[in-house]
Amino acid sequence: MIPLLALTLAVDSIAIDVRTREVIEQHWNDADRAIPVGSLVKPFTALAYSGDFPEFTCTGRRCWLARGHGKLHFRQALAFSCNEYFLNLAKSVDPQTLAVVAAKFGIPPPAEDSAEARIGLGTSWRITPAGLARAYAELAERSGEPRVREILDGLRMSAESGTSGAIGRGFFAKTGTAPCVSEKHDSGDGFTIVIAPAEASRKVLLVRVHGVPGAEAAKSARDILRKWK
Ligand SMILES: [Zn+2]
After folding, report:
1. How far apart are CA 13 and CA 219, in angstroms?
2. How far is the CA of 82 from the centre of ligand 1 (A)?
3. Ligand 1 centroid, distance to 22 Cα (angstroms)
4. Which of 162, 171, 215, 220 could staple 158 via S-S, CB 3.0–4.6 A?
């Protein structure tokens, strides 16, 4: 007999108000416990990169997409969460600069000094769900800054046609996949964060689904967004 619980997705979610930074909805037991959040850290590493974002060709050798993403601009690399692009970016990011950027957004820096850690691979960059949602609220509020604008353009493309494609138009979104740190030992946890709506942002929603990739978690986030309307 299959236990009923096995058929139900384990979904955690937290929503905060962009302006007040207060939690407005929480279905997450330990939202103040720092956890690995995978690629959701990529915007902050990008902010610590100095100079214009490069073009880069992903071969798939160091990417989750085995066939490779091919030639990418920054915006596409963020929308499709290309690991190879971001490893290339992260290797020249100065750890001190990253620590300053992280502090500005209210999150801790990675505990390990490596390009992998800086793009959210492994478990050494841990952030609380509530803290991460507030960091994205800070991104939304800094939309007038040119570098932040480039990042938000990537997050818009992610929601429209990238890894967060389940979300659709009118939002900024990003997915991530990270090793599960709960006792249940699922293969990994999928995350999706959404700034809603894209222009005149009012809320940030962070969703975690145990045992699925980030792109799947985007469907759970979409279902929550629909209930808000
Ligand atoms: Zn790639």
Report:
1. 13
2. 4
3. 35
4. 162
Cβ-contact 36, 113 below 8 angstroms: no
Query: Which domains are delineated in the chain?
Result: 6-228 (3.40.710.10)
pTM reported for the whole predicted model: 0.94
In tens, the pLDDT along 160-173 reads 999 999 999 999 99
pLDDT digits (tens, 9 = 90+) for 19-74: 999 999 999 998 889 999 999 999 999 999 999 999 999 999 999 999 999 999 99
How many residues make up the chain in this entry? 229
DSSP secondary structure, 126-160, as one string: EE-HHHHHHHHHHHHHTTTSHHHHHHHHHHHHHHH
Q: How far is the CA of 59 from the centre of ligand 1 (A)?
A: 7
Q: How many CA atoms lie within 13 A of 120 on its CB side?
A: 30
